[in-house]
Structures are given as C-alpha cells and as structure tokens.
Design brief:
The complex is a heterodimer of chains A (106) and B (707). With 106 residues, chain A is of the alpha/beta class. In chain A, α1 packs parallel to α2. The relative contact order of chain A is 0.18. Chain B is α+β, with helices and mostly antiparallel strands. Chain B contains 13 helices and 32 strands. In chain B, the strands form eight sheets. Chain B has an eight-stranded parallel beta barrel with strand order 14-15-20-21-22-23-24-25. In chain B, strands 1, 2, 3, 4, 7 and 8 form a six-stranded antiparallel sheet that branches. Chain B has a five-stranded antiparallel sheet with strand order 6-5-9-13-12, with no helix packed on it. In chain B, β3 and β4 form a beta hairpin. Classes of the chains: A alpha/beta (106), B alpha+beta (707). The interface between A and B is medium-sized, with 18 and 26 residues. Chain A: This is Anti-sigma factor antagonist. Chain A: It comes from Mucilaginibacter terrae.
C-alpha cells in the first residue's frame, strides 16, 4: 500500500500522520518530514499511525533517526499502532524508546 | 533516477535493461551500500566469467542478470556498483562459469546461482522449519542489511575472563518449551524476555550455540520407527558466516533478524552479560562431492576447501568437507567475518568449534605456527575479544594443553571434564587430577595461567548434568542411528538405577552429586561454564547427542525450576559465592609459597589430616585451603577458603587446619546436610560446630570460609 505522510506543528508539538507501508522505498519521505519539523525544535513528536500497516527495518531506522535528530529529551508518542507494528517494535526492542498510547495527550 | 552524488566514481557508466551500473570497488568483498547504489565484489581465482543475478524478494525468477564486463575484473575479484536498488527487497547471487574438473579441484556449474560468501543476511530460511520450495532455483539468497543500528553507548563489556561464569545455550531451546512463558518462543527476542532469569542465576556471559545461518532441513529425515521428523537442530553446519539465522528471529519473516539480534546483545550488555558466539569455521553445509553447491563450491572450490590429490574432500570435521582455513584468501575471510561480528554486533568472544582444524595446512598436516590462529590472536579489531578453542577435531588431532595460543587463546578443558567426572563417580586414583583441576590445571597450562582453561563438566555434546548421574549408558534410540552416534566414554554413573526411578535414596544421591559437581566447578580456578538447564536438573533422558531433535529432548522445561527449586537455589548460591570471593578467580597459578609472609602459602593441600594430602590410588578425599591474602594473586584480600570433597561411599572425619588467632571456620556449603539444605547465604554462614573436626558425609563436598 502506498505510503503517505503529513505533518504539522501545534503549540510546539510535532504531529505526523502516517499511513500505508513504511519501508526502504518510503523511509526517505518520513526522513524529510522529521527534518522539516526539527527546524522548529518541538518538545514532543507524535506519530498517528492507526492507518500504518507495515514497518520494515528502514522504518525502524526512521524512529531512531527522529530520536537522534530531535534529541533524546524529546519524547516520541505512537498513537494507536496496529498489532503488527507493536510486534515489530517489541521484537526489536525499539518499544522501549517510544510511548505507545491510544490518544495524545495520553 | 535519484540525485547522484557528485563523485565521479558513483556515476553510472553502463546500462542494461534499464539498470545502470559501473565498475565497483574491489574491497570490501560482499555487497556494500554506497551513494545511490550497491557495490558488489566477489573473489574467484579460477572462474572464467561471472554474472550478478538479482531477484525481487521471494520472486521465483530474477529480474535481472548482469554479466561482469572484463574490465570490472581486478585481479581475481569481480566488482560492480549497481544503482537505484531497493535495499530491503533485493536478493542477489552470482552465476560463475569455469571448468568442471573435480580431479583438479574445480566444480564450476553455471546452472547454479551462488550465495555471496560475504552476504550479511540470507533469505529463504526466514521462518524456522518452513517447508522449503525444493524447486526454487536459488534457495539461499544473499541479502543486504542496514548497518546503522543505534547502539547508543553500548560497547563490548571486557569483563576479565577469570571473572566470567559462562552459560552455554541454544537459542531456540532456551524458550521454545511451552512452560517458558515467553511471547516470542525460540527466538532472540525470547532470550531478551528471559534476561531477568539470567540475572537471577547470576551468570555474566552467554555462549550461543551456532547462530550463523544454517539449513535445519539439511540431512533431515523421518525416524524409521517413530516417524518423528529429525532435523539439523543444533546448526553446526554453516551456510554463511556473516549472516545471523533468520529462523531464530521473531522478526525474521520481516527481514529484521539483524536488528533483533543486535537489540538482544545491547540489552544483555546493559545487564552486565557478555555474549560469545560458538562459530563453526571447520566445514560448511556443502558437504563432500555428493553435497549441494550453495556458495564456496561453485565460486572457488579449490581455494575454499582442503582437497585430496585426487580432488576429493578431506574430512577432518567428520561432516564431509574441511574449510581450507590457512589459505590466505580463506584466512582473510575468517578474519573479516570475526571483525564484522566484533565491530557490528559487539560480540565479546568466540568459541571455535573443532578449532584444531584451523591449525592444519591445506594438505591436512598440523602446522607448527598456524597463520590463521596467529592472525586472530594479534588482530587489532579482535584485540579485546576472548578467543576459545575446542582444541580437537574429528581427524584425531587433540591439542588440549598445547593449542597454539600466542598468549591469547583459551581452550575448552576436556581433561577437566573427564577427570572431574571420574572423581565424582568414585574412580580410584583421581585425587591428584582433582587437585590439578581445582587449581586451574597447571599441569596442562604451566606457563599460560589459569585462564587458559574453560572448565566444564557438561556441554551441549554429551550428557546433561542430571543424566550424568542417572545413566551409565547413552540412550540415543530417538536419533534413528541405531545407537551408533554419540560418544561411549561418558564417565557417568547412574547411582544404582538406570534412568528414572522411585528410590528416594538414589534420587537424593543424584541431586547431591549434581551439587558436588557444581561446587567443584565453581570453586575451581579458571573459567567455569555451565550448560543451559543444568542448574535446574534438565534431562535428555539419557540421550547424549540430541543434535537432531526439535522437541522436548532439547527444549528447556522451565517447570524444572520449581520442581528442583533447591537445586536452582544451590547453583545460584555457588555463582554468588564465586563472584564474592576473588581468591577463587586468580589469573596466575598458585606458587605454593608464602611470598607475603602471611603465615600460610597461597594454597595448601590436606586430607583427613591437615597438610597431609593423600594422593594414593585408594584415596577419594581431597581438601585444600586458599589463603585469602592471595586473592587475585595477592592484589586483593579475601576470606580463607577451605574446600573438601569426598567421593567415598562412607563419611570421613576431617581435622581442619588451624586459622590465625581469633578467626573461625564458617560453613558456606555442605552438600551432605540432610533435608536438602546445602548452603548458607553470604554473611549468614554459621561457625562450624567443632573448631577442629568436621564430618564430611559420603559423596559430599564442603566449602568453609575462615574469617
């Protein structure tokens, strides 16, 4: 499924909405969005992913990239991930670097 | 096409069917991500041509096949950069042409697509025991991996080797049993879930049985009587030396085995646990002339394998072929491989399966100064890694005690295993050997110190610790080989009944013997290694070679931890005790002298009477006292420790050596105590009842501390 991403900054919170498959062919799109919001030094990054169906190894890297780009003090929230995405985060341990929530603010 | 890097050497010069490419870089070998593309480089000295064959992931037919132009061949390497490839969906291989002339060592076959010896991942075995497509024209597909894992602050732990307690384990077996409670059973992620258990036990190093990609279907068969599926379960048959086994990763079907394994290692490190790999460089999964052509055989057979003058395969591994490790090209591949694992995976140490083979010349003769072993010992990238040899091979080369060490290599101490087993079952004439073993085997390693020896009583090969005291004979019927497999010299003793029995006394004796073994192992100088599950009485029901069983013969039954809670607590205590007492972890051998004028030598030997050790044929009692002033060879201070063992069937009365004024002996361990209570927690050790005498029970061991 084609990947789409939109972003906005609201009251210092960066909000990205992702859908489709986040893999090596689409990861660069997310990278661009993260770089874009990073210029405004957000205090948190919120990823709305209820429509995201697949995250590959390249997708995982984008989470790590976001953490490194925004600084480790900027918390990352993943809102309403599908089961397979949660599994991927669990199996690879990335889940410890983010917050899985049903809504933001949690 | 994507925006190109401005560097001229990353600009395409060739095009075929819409795919753009150019001459690549010779080094590094393998497939490497470069700006806008992938650099492919492969060595072959005797081929006449080579093509790069590329597939979309899982597709039956390739989407492109690009012959390497002659000008892309530099020396004996083909190299090419191909642009605009999808790193995650690409699977690739090589088609080599050349002479098919086995008598002269050449087995080229241009009908085969070959795996890259330097591939960093292999597709096609993504899910454990998934049925193979036997018609697949390229079953073991080379893949790319990202190498930008976020290690944060992690680095190899560099725990001094004498401070390690190694836990040998099989990735799948550790959590596959339903009782494990793990969500991701049988995987790297499953081990992560059990890190709290490893910490509770107290070990600080896991040694993973082979995790390089292998084919569990290799030589698979159905048992002729039971119909049970038998597979290559242990994995001592490497398909590719750079790739972690995808089937061991819960995320393998997503191609994320690299991330999952690195995450495991990172988490083990953050919990103070080192990671060793059991690596198998002695042979490959291609077997002999009857085996499949997967990679090396079709790329440069004569370089990668030791061949007889007639072009057949030398078989020092017992599995069909032998890797030609001291050929300079192969030697470099082994070095590249271990450097890769040390640097990209933060591996802390390597245990080399049948390492004696690594010291053989291409004609099979043992080398006096094996270049591979020397190169590994002095390699700058591996400088802090522990290197451990299984110092024998299936061709009869047995080098325990004289493996070419170059001041670096340690060895699995097979002599230690044999002597401790013989002593524990009560053989005559074993007290001298026990004394040597407890000291770190100075007779074997007079100049190499205690850390040359990895002490073990059991390992994956042979009986479990429980079975060592429950079976006189191996019971390998489930293997379907008519009992011809597995060793016959187990030095085991069933304590009076073969296999499971209801006799309370026999069962009590068995568990006491296990505790005796753990006591000796964990108070011995050198580096102790425990086999997975021995701390909770795991049984293989007398099978001493469970290499082919993906079932409860191998899976760790976690219910045993509750069933044998007393045993687990004892094992845990012995590890705690070892870690608390540096006098048990000297790096250099004892001197038998009192060079600090403390009143005692660093070690003294005793029997039923102090300072009267009995090493005679009929003796079965041994005691020694370690002087706490000589902990860490005099660098630290510790309690005095008195260790006594009795493999005789009756109790003996020991007269204890006297301590300096004001000090008393306290009981830490006494496996002969009734009602299962065999130890006292640190700091809670009671003063011994009688200051001069101690009744050492039949087939028992004690550890006293003087303070």
């Amino acid at each position: 499924m084609a990947f789409t991403i939109t972003s906005e900054i609201s009251e210092g919170i960066a909000k990205l909405t992702l859908s489709g498959s986040l893999d090596s062919s689409s990861a660069s799109m997310m990278q661009l969005e993260v770089q874009k919001v990073a210029t405004q030094s957000p205090t948190a990054l919120v990823l709305y992913v209820s429509e995201l169906e697949f995250m590959s190894s390249a997708g995982l890297r984008m989470l790590i990239f976001a953490k490194q780009k925004l600084g480790t003090s900027v918390q990352i929230y993943i809102v309403q991930p599908q089961g397979q995405i949660v599994d991927t985060l669990q199996m690879t341990g990335i889940i410890h670097s983010v917050h899985i929530v049903d809504n933001y603010p949690a | 096409m994507a925006e190109y890097d401005l560097r001229i050497d990353y600009y395409p010069t060739h095009e075929l069917q819409g795919i753009e490419y150019r001459r690549g870089h010779v080094l590094p070998f393998g497939a490497t991500m470069v700006p806008n593309g992938v650099n492919f480089s492969v060595y072959s000295s005797a081929s006449t041509s080579c093509s790069l064959v590329m597939f979309e992931r899982g597709e039956p037919l390739p989407f492109a096949e690009i012959p390497f132009p002659e000008e892309f061949r530099i020396g004996n390497a083909y190299c090419m950069i191909v642009f605009d490839l999808d790193f995650e969906s690409l699977e690739y291989g090589y088609r080599m042409d050349g002479p098919h002339d086995p008598a002269n060592g050449h087995r080229f076959d241009n009908s085969k697509i070959l795996s890259d010896p330097y591939a960093k991942a292999i597709g096609g075995r993504d899910t454990w025991m998934a049925s193979p497509d036997w018609d697949n024209i390229y079953p073991f597909r080379s893949r790319l991996v990202f190498e930008d894992f976020d290690w944060e602050h992690d680095r190899p732990l560099q725990i001094p080797i004498e401070d390690l307690v190694i836990y040998e384990m099989h990735v799948r077996s550790f959590t596959m049993h339903p009782s494990s409670g793990a969500k991701y059973k049988g995987t790297f992620a499953g081990i992560r879930e059990k890190i709290p258990y490893l910490k509770e036990l107290g070990i600080n190093c896991v040694e993973l049985m082979p995790i390089y990609e292998f084919d569990e279907w290799e030589h698979s068969k159905l048992h002729s009587d039971t119909g049970q599926q038998l597979v290559n379960y242990w994995g001592y048959s490497t398909l590719n030396f750079f790739s972690p086994k995808a089937g061991y990763a819960a995320s393998g079907k997503l191609g994320m085995q690299v991330d999952e394994l690195k995450t495991l290692i990172k988490d083990l490190h953050s919990n103070g646990i080192e990671v060793f790999l059991d690596v198998v460089f002695n042979h490959t999964a291609e077997g002999d002339h009857r085996g499949p052509t997967i990679s090396f055989k079709g790329i440069d057979n004569k370089t990668y394998y030791m061949l007889t003058p007639e072009g057949y395969y030398f078989n020092f591994s017992g599995t069909g072929n032998t890797l030609n490790c001291n050929n300079p090209v192969v030697r470099n591949m082994v070095l590249d491989c271990l450097r890769y694992w040390a640097s990209e995976y933060h591996i802390d140490g390597f245990r080399f399966d049948l390492a004696a083979i690594l010291g053989r010349a291409p004609d099979g003769s043992p080398l006096n100064n094996p270049p591979l072993l020397e190169s590994l010992a002095f390699d700058p990238v591996l400088a802090k890694c522990k290197l451990i040899a299984e110092a024998w091979d299936a061709g009869g080369l047995y080098q325990v005690g004289n493996f070419p060490a170059y001041g670096r290599w340690a060895e699995w101490n097979g002599k230690y295993r044999d002597h401790i087993r013989q002593y524990l079952k009560g053989d005559a004439g074993r007290v001298g050997h026990l004394a040597q073993a407890i000291q770190g085997s100075p007779w074997l390693y007079p100049t190499r110190g205690t850390t040359a020896g990895i002490n073990f009583i059991t390992c994956h090969d042979g009986f479990t610790l429980y079975d060592l005291f429950a079976y006189n004979e191996k019971h390998n019927q489930a293997n379907g080989e008519n009992g011809n497999d597995g060793c016959n010299d187990n030095e085991s003793w069933n304590c009076g009944c073969e296999g499971e029995c209801d006799d309370t006394e026999i069962n009590a004796l068995r568990y006491r013997q296990i505790k005796n073994a753990l006591t000796i192992l964990l108070v011995s100088q050198g580096v102790p290694m425990i086999y997975m599950g021995d701390e909770m009485g795991r049984t293989q029901h007398g099978n001493n070679n469970t290499y082919c069983h993906d079932n409860e013969l191998n899976w760790l039954n976690w219910a045993l931890k509750d069933k044998n809670a007393d045993l687990f607590a004892f094992a845990r205590h012995m590890i705690v005790f070892r870690k608390a007492h540096p006098v048990l972890r000297n790096r250099d051998h004892f001197t038998y002298s009192d060079y600090k004028n403390t009143g005692f030598a660093d070690i003294t030997f005793h029997g039923a009477n102090p300072y009267q050790a009995d090493f005679s044929e009929g003796s079965r009692v041994f005691a020694c006292m370690l002087n706490g002033q000589y902990a860490k060879n005099g660098a630290e201070t510790d309690d005095h420790i008195y260790i006594a063992t009795n493999s005789y069937w009756d109790a003996v009365v020991l007269e204890l050596p006297q301590l300096p004024g004001g000090m008393h002996w306290h009981t830490s361990v006494n496996t002969g105590m009734p009602n299962g209570a065999s130890y006292f927690d640190l700091g809670q050790e009671p003063v011994v009842e009688h200051p001069k005498h101690f009744i050492l029970g039949p087939r028992s061991a004690i550890v006293l501390i003087g303070k």
